[in-house]
Amino acid sequence: QVQLVESGGGLVQPGGSLRLACTASATIFNSYVMGWYRQAPGKQRDLVAIITSSGITNYADSVKGRFTISRDNSENTVYLQMSDLKPEDTALYSCNARKGWTTYWGQGTQVTVSS
C-alpha cells in the first residue's frame, strides 16, 4: 500500500521559516514526480512546487525565491523549505506523488503564519 506521510507543519510568525517533509513508500518514490500543494480555507488546492525524479523543479510564482523543494532518494523523502513566510501562506499543505494517471496524496500538514 502506498503511503505519503507529511510532517513539519505548525505555527510560525511572519518572516519565519519551516521545513516540511514527506516520506513515501520506496516502491514509488524513485519513479514518481513529487510535489507539494496547498489549500487555504474556502479556496481551491493549488500547486506549490514539484520535483521530478531527476531533480527538475517548478514553483508557483507566489513562492519563487522563498520556497525550495528537494528530495533525498536514499530516504524516500521530499522536503519543502519555506522561508520569509507570509500570512497568505497559511494553508493545509499536502504531499503528492504522480506518474501518468496515477496519483497519491498524503493527509496534509497545517501551516499557519500569524503574529
Characterise the protein shown here.
This protein starts with a strand and ends with a strand. The protein contains 1 helix and 11 strands; from the N terminus they run βββαββββββββ. It is globular. Strand 7 and strand 8 form a beta hairpin. By secondary structure, the protein is mainly beta. The model has no long low-confidence stretch (mean pLDDT 94). The protein has one helix at residues 26-29; strands at residues 4-7, 10-12, 18-24, 33-39, 46-51, 57-59, 67-72, 77-82, 91-99, 102-105, 109-113. The strands form 2 sheets. Strands 2, 4, 5, 6, 9, 10 and 11 form a 7-stranded mixed beta sheet that branches. Strands 1-3-8-7 form a 4-stranded antiparallel beta sheet.
Instruction: List segments where confidence is low: pLDDT < 50 over at least 5 consecutive residues.
Output: none
Strand content: over 45%
Radius of gyration using CA atoms only: 13 Å
Number of strands: 11
Name the overall outline: globular
Share of helical residues: under 10%
Instruction: Name the helix and strand elements from N-terminus to C-terminus, one letter apiece.
Output: EEEHEEEEEEEE
* Helix run count: 1
Quickly give the structural class.
mainly beta
Question: For the residues shown, what is the average pLDDT?
Answer: 94
Outline the biggest β-sheet. 7 strands, mixed
Terminal residue distance: 40 Å
Compile the SSE list and pairings:
Elements (H helix, E strand, L loop, with lengths): L3 E4 L2 E3 L5 E7 L1 H4 L3 E7 L6 E6 L5 E3 L7 E6 L4 E6 L8 E9 L2 E4 L3 E5 L2
Parallel strand pairs: 2-11
Antiparallel strand pairs: 1-3, 3-8, 4-5, 4-9, 5-6, 7-8, 9-10, 9-11
